[in-house]
């Protein structure tokens, strides 16, 4: 482990986060299930396979356009289960509360959790609460874990992409992180961008109804679209080509990125998924997605190829191409 | 605002590329001075579409890349003073100093903050009178007038706890130094669009007059760059050596006179050291006498030390256009974006970072 | 080495302006580019307007495109 101190960049979801897991956690904890490093662990039983996942939520500010930490804590975990093709069975929620936190705000967050769970079709079945001294938690932190059931015949994993597969996204990218950054009031920018925070369990079940042979599902959270495409290209040992023209970015998100020198391909999303499906099934899956409220803007954005395994190529608007690398550290606003 | 342009962009680009190919005769080397051009050329995919025989090399217009290690070390030393808050543009956070970086120093508790405007420094200084606020001023002529205006405002508002660590540089002297060294073979320059918004066209005349080379002041969209390249090739075909403006929508021949006046009121040129290029006459900016009480280098008495570049690092030669990132033995082996050895890899628009990120082989 | 972003001046207050960038707004200093009116487009760098853009010019990036396109059409017509 090269660095002697944890940097904020270790939590950014890019290469440094990867290195942290590989160099510090895996040497002690490794096992076949953990090492897939997929969104959920898939655990075989005598009956159906279970998907099991956990996530912590430390977002600031706690409330932002389009959601709050409560909604995020349900959607994030439900979506990790959905990325394994699992229908969510139950969620647990642990709260670390800072002394002095207003109970009225806590109630808002709990109502939000209730609402999100209802949308996702899942119940919060277990919980825990701890209180720490003032200053130790910045309001509150939430950790949720989730369990889901994977239907027979569904084999979804980061390593399952095949040459010829179509790459599909369900809408424009960058909304969540752009929305949260604006809500923080940093960098002297004003405006409102709504987070896309939403539970994708229904959308995924509709996709699986249309095609049980979906190869890969992943939600581009921290690290953004570029990072997850790179992860999949490497896990599956294939090349991926995506087209800039087909990947949509909202005008306000583009405006913010231009001002700060950010790249929307590296911004986190919380209501988006990337799907790798056999080419001949793409049309059918796309139709199913567009029928769902969270999939109206779905589109095929690229394909999987044999060439350049492990690399993601972006075909640019003017017909050239360039590499799409994973996020390296944090993105800092630039002047150059 | 760009909607209409984007619809036809792909078609227009195709046509322009075909015309560019038709004009390329033999081998032609163009230097894109500005780091933002290097990045735009990669990101837009232009680099992958250029005809053989047209070679683009990156120049020293990356303010992060040319900031000597000693200046990073000095900024770090200042940030380690108890009551000091160091403000910096984001570009500098990850640049490695001799043993640390601003980002790593922040991780261990130093008060280092990223700002997006020099006016943020005034606000912070006024809001925290018990702290001494040092703004790490880095950039070229695009940025220095804004910094100068902020300094004047600080004076007007009688802000007594704001200081400047000056590390700004100037472009035309660097181009002159490159050409005078006669070590690089260049046929023409893609000149920096936004620096030129401030300085206009005249400061580049020497390129044509004294060295008989061509230059086109170019914007940053894909179509701007293609048009700039087209204009250079057209000059070559017609046997001309001139300075032309492609980026006419914002670059006026006389530049921004007021911005230049304000910059000259606050700063004066001096012989600055550029990483990899050595000392270039009249190429850096420092605060004039009347403003010296704001000069962090004087007030805080932290000495500047020249540091050696890490062994094997070719950044110096890359900045001069003598070598390319792929020529460096450290590229992608010991020197990566996560663990950069030299500044060309750490800066978001450094040649090596761009090559690594967007694809050397494309 | 310079991110300069064009935006539209929504309102002016003294030596500052509210500038709109596709829905996102920033307060921008007019200290080095004061001759600006509501509705103008400006190029912004580090929170300062550094130049006014002529709107019509701003919408049409390329001056020479007609010349280039003509040359291209002529050369492709020759081929056919």
Question: Can you describe this structure?
Answer:
The complex is a heterotrimer of chains A (336), B (362) and C (80). Chain A has helices at residues 15-29, 69-82, 103-120, 175-183, 201-210, 224-236, 251-260, 282-290; strands at residues 41-43, 49-57, 63-64, 67-68, 86-98, 124-132, 140-150, 166-169, 189-190, 216-218, 239-243, 274-277, 299-305, 312-315, 321-323. Chain A is α+β, with helices and mostly antiparallel strands and 336 residues long. Chain A has two domains: 31-150, 60s Ribosomal Protein L30, Chain: A (2-Layer Sandwich), CATH 3.30.1330; 166-323, Phosphoribosyl-aminoimidazole Synthetase, Chain A, domain 2 (Alpha-Beta Complex), CATH 3.90.650. In chain A, the strands form three sheets. Chain A has a seven-stranded mixed β-sheet. Chain A is globular. Chain A starts with 14 loop residues before the first helix and ends in a 13-residue tail after the last strand. The relative contact order of chain A is 0.17. Chain B has 362 residues and is an alpha/beta fold. Chain B is globular. Chain B has a domain at 69-170 and 255-299: Rossmann fold. In chain B, strands 2-1-7-8-9 form a five-stranded parallel β-sheet. The longest helix of chain B is centred in the N-terminal third of the chain and has 21 residues, at 3-23. The model of chain B has no long low-confidence stretch (mean pLDDT 92). Chain B is built from 15 helices and eleven strands. Chain C has two helices and five strands. Chain C has a single domain (5-79), classed as SH3 type barrels. The longest helix of chain C is centred in the C-terminal third of the chain and has 15 residues, at 65-79. Chain C is of the alpha+beta class and 80 residues long. The termini of chain C are far apart. Chain C has a five-stranded antiparallel β-sheet. In chain C, β2 and β3 form a beta hairpin. Chains in contact: A-B, A-C, B-C. At the B-C interface, α1, α5, α6, α8 and α10 of B face β4, β5, α1 and α2 of C.
